[in-house]
Specification:
Heat Shock Protein 90; rod-shaped; alpha+beta; Beta-Lactamase; about 550 residues; 2 domains
Length: about 550
């Protein structure tokens, strides 16, 4: 199991350096793929809209051209017809208008008009003839400017209505835009359209601007100019008539006089469109360049497919990031489990080695105690009793070490454990302990416990704990950061003879304990009581950290 986890975790080492890289990377890649698809889809959609808009523009331009060509063809035909007649009357125009009204292709214009070419001196006679015919209020207007070489007043209109009669008598040559078209038509002898003008028939009402197509009429015999045929167009009606031939929906259509400028706008049709993707298509209406602008319908920022793709892509990105996060979390847990297993294995090895060492030391101490006890006793009972007490001292200290998990053991606890039988059995104040909190290493705690046991046993047999009023005081203090000095002092007991023989306890303290602690033991048999000073090392707890906080799996 350990090997399987180690192999899997070793293949995931880069997680340790970048734990959030996998979820972030997966999310970024998914979002990037989604945005790439949306961008490509929007690009294709824009191309499709542009292609469709261009197709719509071509259809509308064709319809406008067809309408314009129909009117110019009729103007040419009527011009040929009138060129062979001696004179033109209202009834002639009514007959011509009747013929045109039967043709469905002749739509979009306001009708057909005849404007006679006059000189200034011809105006009175022309006005008189026109009044005598059917229009008593007929008058040429505006008054021709001095020196004006040509006067072209509107004389007849096919089937004139009250609105159309507003154009009677209007001198078309008096206005600059019309004059330019008349001069060009006269010069080129073909139908010519004007630019953006205000029609006389619409001067009293709001309406779109318009334009006119003029066709010169010459006398067939003399080739002299007789006048001009005119087809007035309300630009809005003209555009609508073309859209009847090529119906389009949702597209914005605009017709301009040459350039796409607000001041040159002829007409507009359809709902508002978006400027992006608009198609501009030049067209020719009666030899005058015009500009058709077709704009696609207004759309949202993203197309339906892009919105769906973005929503699905974002959802998938979040789900993939969540899965990647769980994988990364599992990898982190695997790493923690492997670290825990490795730590436990290290602890087990260390504990095994330490236990072996402790057992060897303990057995060595026991063997030493047995050997010394055997030499210092004369009978089996004495040997057993002495050996029993010393083994129990080792056992009490071992109990403390086990309670601390063979880690650092409080010095106060070791002293209290060894002197507990005497402090409980002799009353308060017999045993006094004082000193700071200090932790000892396990070996040092065993050695101190054995020394205290021997001192306490000696005091209970011969010293302060053997008589009423005796006292034992144990003080300890730190010397620097790596040593603690423990002082044993007896008082109030029987007087101690300076020549008292040294027993087994003295030998055990001075040999075994001093050897284990690595410090000499100062043991003095003063008359007022035994004095003993031990110096114990305060070891760094690094050697015992392996057992700290490892009782449960992380």
């Amino acid at each position: 199991m350990d090997r399987m986890i180690a192999a899997r975790v070793d293949s995931q080492r880069w997680y340790e350096r970048m734990p959030r890289a996998l979820p972030f990377g997966v999310f970024t890649l998914a979002i990037a793929a989604t945005l790439l698809f949306v961008t490509y889809n929007e690009y294709r959609e824009a191309e499709r809209r542009e292609s469709q808009t261009h197709a719509v523009a071509s259809v509308v331009a064709s319809a406008l051209g067809r309408r314009a060509n129909t009117h110019t063809a009729y103007l040419r035909a009527v011009a040929i017809l009138l060129s062979s007649r001696a004179d033109v009357r209202q009834r002639d125009f009514n007959a011509i208008a009747s013929e045109l009204s039967t043709d469905d292709e002749y739509r979009g214009s306001e009708g057909i008009s005849w404007a006679k070419a006059l000189r200034r001196e011809d105006i009175p006679a022309f006005e008189a003839s026109r009044r005598a015919e059917d229009f008593p209020d007929y008058a040429v207007h505006p008054t021709p400017a001095p020196g004006q070489r040509l006067i072209v007043p509107v004389a007849y209109i096919g089937h004139p209505t009250a609105r159309l009669r507003l154009a009677y008598g209007y001198d078309t040559y008096s206005e600059a835009m019309r004059r330019a078209a008349l001069d060009r038509a006269l010069r080129e002898r073909r139908p010519i359209a004007t630019g953006r003008v205000r029609l006389e028939i619409d001067k009293d009402r709001p309406s779109w601007p318009g334009f006119l197509i003029y066709m010169p009429v010459f006398d067939r015999q003399t080739h002299a100019l007789r006048g001009f045929l005119g087809a007035p167009f309300n630009a809005g009606a003209f555009l609508d008539s073309a859209l009847e031939m090529a119906p389009v929906h949702d597209y914005a259509i605009a017709l301009y006089d040459g350039r796409a400028e607000p001041s040159l706008l002829f007409a507009r049709a359809g709902p508002p469109g978006q400027t992006a993707g608009s198609t501009r298509l030049p067209i020719i209406v009666a030899h005058r360049p015009m500009l058709l602008v077709v704009s696609p319908p207004l759309t949202s920022a993203l197309g339906p497919l892009s919105v769906i793709a973005l929503a699905l892509g974002s959802t998938v990105a979040v789900l993939l990031a969540a899965v990647a996060w769980m994988v990364a979390r599992q990898a982190a847990e695997d790493r923690a489990a492997l670290a825990w297993l490795r730590e436990q294995a290290s602890i087990r090895g260390t504990l095994s080695r330490e236990l072996s060492h402790r057992v060897k030391n303990t057995l060595a101490n026991v063997l030493s105690i047995i050997a010394l006890t055997r030499r210092r006793t004369s009978g089996l009972d004495d040997f057993a009793n002495a050996l029993d007490g010393r083994i129990r001292a080792l056992s009490a200290t071992h109990d403390l070490l086990i309670a601390s998990n063979w880690g650092p053991t409080p010095l106060r606890a070791v002293i209290a454990a060894e002197l507990a039988p005497y402090s409980r059995g002799f009353g308060d104040g017999v045993v006094a302990l004082e000193g700071p909190d200090v932790d000892l290493a396990p070996n040092d705690a065993l050695s101190l416990g054995l020394a205290l046991h021997e001192l306490a046993t000696n005091a209970s047999k011969y010293g302060a704990l053997s008589a009423e009023g005796g006292r034992v005081r144990v003080d300890w203090s730190l010397e620097g950061t790596d040593k603690v000095r423990v002082q044993w002092a007896e008082s109030g007991g029987p007087a101690v003879s300076p020549t008292r023989p040294r027993g087994f306890g003295t030998e055990l303290i001075e040999r075994i304990v001093a050897h284990e602690l690595g410090e000499p033991v100062d043991l003095a048999f003063a008359e007022q009581g035994v004095r003993c000073t031990l110096a114990l090392p305060v070891r760094a707890p690094a050697a015992f950290r392996i057992r700290a906080g490892t009782t449960s799996k992380p």
